[in-house]
Write a structure and sequence with these properties.
By secondary structure, the protein is mainly α. Helices cover 82% and strands 0% of the residues. The protein starts with a helix and ends with a helix.
Length: 600
C-alpha cells in the first residue's frame, strides 16, 4: 500500500507544482504593443505546427494498432493506444508554456532584469518536465498496480510502443519545423523553437516510460539470476522502479524551485547545482527502499550508477559545448575560416568526443550488471529517467533562452554591455549540452535494457556472430542508423525550402509549412525495418538488429551532441527517438518471429 500512496502522492505533487508554475509564468508576461505582436506571431506559428500533427499521427497509430491486433492480440492493441494517448496528453499540456516562456524571458531581458529572465525561462521549461513525468507515472502506476504480473509483462511493451510512436511524430516534425526556421530566417526575424521544445518533451516522456517497461520485462531476471541472497518477488521487482521514478518527481520539484536565476555569467553552474541536489535525494530514497523492499542495498547501487554516469557525462560534455574548452581550443572562429570548414572542425571534435561518455556509460551498465544482472541495467536507466522533471527543465531552458535571445535581438536596440540577447544566448549554449547529454545517456541505457529484455524473452543470446541471420541483422541495424540520420537532414532541408519561399514572399500565409515533408519514409522505416530483420533472420536476426542499432546509435548520439550547432539538432531527440521506436517495435512483434522464424 505504501508504494501506491507514494507513487500517487509524488505524481500529484508534480502536477500541482506544474500548474502553479504555469500560473506564475502567465503573470510575468509584460503587456505592451510590442509584446502583443510578438506573442501573436509565435502563437500563430505554434498553431501551424500543431495543425500538421493530428491526422498523420492518427493514421500511423491506426495502422500500427491494426498490425498489433492482428499479429499479437487485441489487448495489446488497446494498451498501445493507451500509451499513445498518455504521451500526447502530457506533451500538449506541458507545451502550453512554449509561447509565454520565451516571450516573458525576452521582455524581462529587455527591461534589464536578466536574473528574472533566466528564472522565468527555467520555470517555463520545468512545466513541461513536470507534466510529462507526472502524467507518465500515473499511467504506469495504473498498469503496474492493477494488472497481475503475467498480464503486465505481456502488455507493457505495446504500451511503450504507443508512447514511442507518438513521440516520434511530434519529435521529428518538431525538429523539421525549428530546423527549417534556423536555416531560413533573416536578420529581422527569429527562429521559432516551438517544435524543438515540444519534441524535447516528447523524447523525455518516451524514455521515461520505456525505462519502466524495461524494468518490468527484466524483473524476473532480477529475482532469478542476480546472484544476490534475497527473498523479494517479481511483483516487488516490478514496482521498485516506480518508487524510484516517484521520488525523482519530488526531488526534481525541489531542484527546480531552488534555482533563482543566480550566476548570470555562468547559469549552467546554478542549474547543475539543482541537478546534483535532486540526484542525491533520488539515490538516498533508492537505497532506502532497496533495503526495505528488496532486502539489500545492491539495487539502490544500480540506480546510483546510472545517475552518476549521467552526471559525469554531463560534466564532460561541457568541454565540448559550442563555447567549451575543446571547441575554443580546436575549432577556429567561423568568421575566419568560413562555415564549411567550421562544420568539418566541429564534426571532427564530435567524433573524437565519443570515447569518454561512451566509456562512462558502458562502465555504469557493466557495474549495474555485476550487481543485479540485466535487471540492474534497467534500474540504472530508471535512475536517470527519475530525474526527467529537472533534466527536461534544463533542456527546455536552453531552448527557451535561445528563443528569447533571438526575439530580444529583434525587438531590443541596446548598446549596453553585455547585451541582454547575448547573455541569453550564452545561457542557452552552456546548458544545451547538459540536457542533451542526460537524455542521451538515458536513451542508451534504456535501449540496452530493452535489447536485453528481447534476448531474455526469446531465450536466444544470438552468440554465433557469423551465422547468416545474426550477421544480416547486425548489418541492417548499423546501416539503418545512418540512413535515418540522412533522412532527418533531408526533411529539414525540404521544409526549409518551403519556409524560405514563404518568407521571401513577405510572409505569404498561403504557403503552408508542412513539417512532414520527407518524414513519411522515416516513419515507415522505424516500423518496417525491424520487421524486415525479423522476416529474414528470425528472432536471432531481430536480436542482432537491436544490438547493432543500440551500439551504433550510442556512438552517433554522442558524436552529434558534441558537434556544435551544425549537427546537434539531429541527435538525441531525433535520431535517438527513431532508434527507440525500432527497438520497441522489435520487442512487440518478437512473438511472431519466435513462432514462425525467418526465411534464412
Amino acid at each position: 500500500m505504501l508504494d501506491k500512496i507514494l507513487t500517487l502522492a509524488c505524481a500529484l505533487f508534480g502536477l500541482l507544482t506544474a500548474v502553479a508554475l504555469e500560473a506564475w509564468l502567465r503573470s510575468r508576461i509584460k503587456k505592451d504593443a510590442a509584446t502583443a505582436d510578438t506573442y501573436n506571431t509565435v502563437r500563430n506559428r505554434n498553431a501551424e505546427y500543431w495543425s500538421n500533427q493530428y491526422l498523420p499521427l492518427l493514421i500511423m497509430l491506426a495502422v500500427v494498432a491494426a498490425a498489433i491486433g492482428f499479429a499479437v492480440s487485441p489487448w495489446n492493441a488497446a494498451v498501445f493506444f493507451g500509451g499513445a494517448v498518455l504521451c500526447f496528453v502530457s506533451v500538449i499540456l506541458g507545451s502550453r508554456t512554449v509561447i509565454s516562456g520565451s516571450i516573458s524571458s525576452s521582455s524581462l531581458a529587455a527591461s534589464g532584469d536578466i536574473r528574472g529572465s533566466l528564472k522565468t525561462a527555467y520555470r517555463s521549461a520545468a512545466v513541461m518536465g513536470l507534466f510529462v513525468s507526472s502524467f507518465a507515472l500515473i499511467g504506469l502506476g495504473s498498469l503496474f498496480f492493477f494488472l497481475n504480473t503475467g498480464r503486465l509483462v505481456s502488455l507493457i511493451a505495446s504500451f511503450g510502443l504507443g508512447a514511442s510512436i507518438t513521440s516520434l511524430c511530434l519529435n521529428l516534425s518538431g525538429t523539421a519545423f525549428s530546423g527549417a526556421y534556423a536555416l531560413s530566417v533573416k536578420n529581422d526575424d527569429y527562429t521559432d523553437y516551438t517544435g524543438m521544445f515540444i519534441g524535447s518533451g516528447a523524447d523525455f516522456v518516451e524514455t521515461y516510460i520505456l525505462s519502466a517497461c524495461a524494468a518490468a520485462l527484466l524483473a524476473g531476471v532480477g529475482v532469478d539470476a542476480s546472484g544476490v541472497t534475497s527473498t523479494f518477488t517479481v511483483s516487488a521487482a516490478i514496482k521498485y522502479p516506480l518508487i524510484v521514478l516517484a521520488s525523482g518527481i519530488a526531488a526534481s520539484v525541489l531542484g527546480i524551485l531552488a534555482y533563482r536565476g543566480r550566476f548570470v555569467k555562468n547559469p549552467a553552474a546554478g542549474i547543475t547545482a539543482g541537478n546534483y541536489v535532486s540526484a542525491v535525494i533520488v539515490i538516498l530514497v533508492a537505497l532506502y527502499f532497496s533495503k526495505n523492499i528488496l532486502q539489500t542495498y545492491v539495487y539502490g547501487f544500480c540506480v546510483a550508477a546510472g545517475i552518476v554516469a549521467a552526471a559525469a557525462c554531463g560534466e564532460i560534455a561541457k568541454l565540448y559545448s559550442y563555447d567549451g574548452l575543446m571547441f575554443r581550443k580546436h575549432v577556429p572562429d567561423a568568421r575566419t575560416i568560413g562555415a564549411s570548414q567550421s562544420m568539418i572542425y566541429s564534426l571532427s571534435i564530435g567524433m573524437i568526443s565519443v570515447v569518454i561518455p561512451a566509456a562512462i556509460t558502458v562502465a555504469a551498465m557493466v557495474i549495474s550488471y555485476k550487481f543485479a544482472n540485466f535487471y540492474g541495467i534497467a534500474l540504472a536507466s530508471a535512475g536517470i529517467c527519475s530525474m526527467t522533471g529537472i533534466c527536461s527543465a534544463v533542456r527546455g531552458f536552453s531552448i527557451n533562452t535561445a528563443s528569447a535571445s533571438e526575439i530580444a535581438s529583434v525587438i531590443i536596440d541596446s548598446d549596453e554591455s553585455p547585451n541582454p540577447a547575448d547573455v541569453l544566448l550564452t545561457a542557452s549554449v552552456r546548458t544545451d549540452v547538459i540536457g542533451k547529454t542526460y537524455s542521451a545517456v538515458a536513451t542508451i541505457t534504456t535501449l540496452t535494457a530493452m535489447f536485453t529484455a528481447l534476448s531474455i524473452t526469446a531465450d536466444s543470446p544470438a552468440a554465433d556472430l557469423m551465422s547468416t541471420p545474426v550477421f544480416l541483422g547486425s548489418t541492417v541495424g548499423a546501416v539503418s542508423v545512418f540512413v535515418c540520420a540522412g533522412l532527418i537532414i533531408r526533411s529539414i532541408r525540404l521544409t526549409a525550402t518551403v519556409l524560405r519561399e514563404r518568407l521571401d514572399d513577405a510572409y505569404d500565409d498561403e504557403k503552408h509549412i508542412n513539417t512532414l515533408r520527407g518524414l513519411v519514409v522515416l516513419y515507415a522505416a522505424a516500423i518496417i525495418v525491424p520487421a524486415i530483420a525479423g522476416f529474414l533472420g528470425g528472432i536471432n536476426g531481430l536480436i542482432a538488429f537491436t544490438c547493432s542499432v543500440t551500439v551504433t546509435g550510442m556512438c552517433m548520439l554522442f558524436a552529434f551532441n558534441d558537434s556544435g550547432k551544425y549537427f546537434d539538432r539531429m541527435a538525441t531527440e531525433t535520431l535517438g527517438n527513431v532508434i527507440k521506436v525500432m527497438v520497441v517495435a522489435a520487442i512487440v512483434f518478437a512473438p511472431v518471429f519466435i513462432k514462425f522464424g525467418g526465411v534464412l
